[in-house]
Amino acid sequence: MEPTPELSPHHAYPDHWEADVVLRDGGTARIRPITTDDAERLVSFYEQVSDESKYYRFFAPYPRLSDRDVHRFTHHDYVDRVGLAVTIGGEFIGTVRFDRINEQGRPASAPADEAEVAFLVQDAHQGRGVASALLEHIAAVARERGIRRFAAEVLPANNKMIKVFRDAGYTQQRSFEDGSVHLTLDLEPTEKSLAVQRGREQRAEARSVQRLLAPGSVAVIGTGRTPGGVGRTVLRNLLAAGFTGRTYAVNRAFDEGLATLDGVPAHRSLGEIDEQVDLAVIAVPVHRVPEAVADCGEHGVQGLVVLSAGYAERGSAGRELQRELVRQARSYGMRIIGPNAFGIINTAESVRLNASLAPESPARGRIGLFTQSGAIGIALLSGLHRRGAGLSSFISAGNRADVSGNDFLQYSFEDQDTDVALLYLESLGNPRKFTRLARRTAAVKPVVVVKGARHSGTNPPGHAVPVSRIPDATVSALMRQAGVIRVDTVTEMVDAGLLLAGQPLPAGPRVAILGNSESLGLLTYDACLAEGLRPRPPRDLTTAASPQDFRDALAEALADGTCDAVIVTAIPWVGENGEAETGDGEVLAAALRGAAAGGPAKPVAVVHVEIGGLAEALAAASSTAAPRTRPTTLAGRPAAAPGAPTGAAPATATAPTGPGTEAPAETAGTTETTETEAAEPPGRIPAYPAAERAVRAMAEAVKYAQWRRQAATPGKVPEFLDETTDEPGAAALIDTLLGTAPDPRGRPLTHDEARELLGRYGIPVRPTLPAPDPEAAVAAAARLGYPVALKTTAPHLRHRADLGGVRLDLTDEDALRRAYAEVTELLGKPAELLPVVQSMAPRGVDTVVRASIDAAAGAVLSFGLAGAPSELLGDTAHRLVPATDRDAAELIRSIKAAPVLFGWRGSAPVDTPALEELLLRLSRLVDDHPEVVSVALEPVVVAPQGLTVLGATVRLAPPPPRGDLGPRRLPNY
To answer: In the predicted model, what is the mean pLDDT of residues 905-924?
Structure first.
């Protein structure tokens, strides 16, 4: 007989174990603990399992569950006996259970740390990754309950289950005993298990977006009976784009005798449609959306685009409606774009989907576009269309209640039709995950981001996500660390996207400038210098230059090994009659395209003034263009975007490989294949109406190309840190300092406590001794040794030498007493000033090093020069933790005042290797111990030899939750 669960809060229903997950095929399901109310669901589920699967589960024929079985499998204490179920539409499709056991395999309680685990998945849902998702979640539950190992008995013929265990990435042991395979899994996450988990997450989420963008059939729910209206507009756009699948018009108000509308079948409900509907576009009033979603879920619709408004953008009541919408859709296994969305577009020839309010579907191209704003989406579509650029896909997510920019990055990483990903984001639901996905995607194709709502400190209406408190400059620095091209405006995003989609990446910052206007060339030259490029003196072809002259000059510049990119400037040229010729831009465009096609692969951009038809002709298809040749994996997947840096080693995707993951294209073996793309020919030369815009786009391409080259050989955390850090000692100290019932707000450490903790990681802090009176100051100086410094530590005077609260180089007792008297006379009583004495450090450059944890962005490492440069001018650089040796080196070199560290104006260069080591040690500390929520080392005096940390403040708090480290789950906004 099983023990009765104790009635204690520890055994209460653990609702934090509930999670929505994306399965292998892109559908969603819900994982939750099994309760006593699930008896009927369990029996129904078991009846739908095949006899073979039952045999594999119980090692014998087991046609039905007894009442005792049902009771046992639905009654858990959530500590020693736990059961989880995967549900779709409220019904079970898979279950998992563990029972804690002792060394003899008998039922046990804590502190026993091993459990027996068993799975059962409905046959109709096998192969969807149900068991793999269950293993991730039950393993997390087990770790939470103090279980460190799983034991499982599997029949040798049950290959699917053996594969689930084998591919999970955990450390495991296998043996063959009594006719079964005995498996033992160590549940401590490993680098391999995390790689497997993220690889599965990537493929599942990419597939979920792919199902939305490439449906076989679409139903527009809420299609109006008369022209006009949102639903009727979407139906019209679907038909105008030539959607290749089946289309249906649905409206419960249709007359019973209405058979077709605009030439497509018309129905009063989805239940009347005899065939599978993959995608539903919902355009009904908000109060009717739940009914429409239920109709979709009950008839197997895979995804929804909800155009209806009236949700979180309307306030708290609308936000709750939005959350209920997501819960309802996910309960049926459906994902949502929206609500309050503008729609989606897929220009692939095999799909031709325009399920949006955009009246004209964009041309086919190589740019993927995601936007959280319908108005911005309209502007971007219009701008790209005017510039002659095509799109591969477009998603306007509206309130972004479900499908987000992270999902779009997952899809873009896989999509062979997308070479550049453009994203307009107003909020980041999971910044840590965004950074990780952006870094991996940027390693193979450019990611360009505009971040709206940068300075408000709040989220836009409708976006219920954590608010980051870090400055926008920090967000920008962290994005660039991940390889993201961060621009300020949608115009700059289009400018950069056009260059990156049509031109190769530059091998360096050297830019040749040529054209028929000396003034325009000089403007371009100045703009290059302002953007940090290295322009060559402009070559003036004079206003008499012909298109052939342009062609010859461009060919010569491209062939020149001392330049990495070319910017052509053009104004209307003067004809034989002395009049300016503004037309016939096609002739000049053909000349430039011909030179670019025949020269080395270098990026070319054109700045033009009033040359009619030039921009259009440069963007137009060229019948003489050679087909694009791209490295393709043996599986047929492109290895890199067409903008791969010329002359550089191929970048390697950062997603690690292992069982359950696909090898990055760059490492899977490549062959050269010719890929003729009718969508958007190679060599499209972007044209810009202003020199500054062209140069800014080129500068972004240069910085991104440099990041790609560096990403090919990522930095490392030096091994010396492992030898000189005491992680267990620091962990024990932190536990002691926080206590058994820590204050959720945390606590600051005293000077001595901070010194002890930092010392565990090889960060010595120069001691300070309190000096509440002159005698104490003299005694402290005698203990520390002269020369000393006298400092006030009152909050309003800390680090304020300019106010007279710091006296340095006090070489004897008399000097110290005089300084003490002067400070107290000038600034106040000792009790107010809190003076301390500290031994002098070698002279050098005063810097400040900080680390902090932001609730939204994660752990951030910061560096700057102490005082005015960082406090007044904001000259501070940032990197995400954990930092590598390359991150540390870049961090100290990326501030504007960096020359001060390297011998500016004849001063002695300081010990930057010691500074880099300090940054790495602090990064390691906060990465190893999330309880360390903030550290400030100020000042850190960096001398020509070594450095000295003169002050340190540390704050501890219970670690914030890390949603990016647990099992896969969809966010709930």
So the answer is: 94
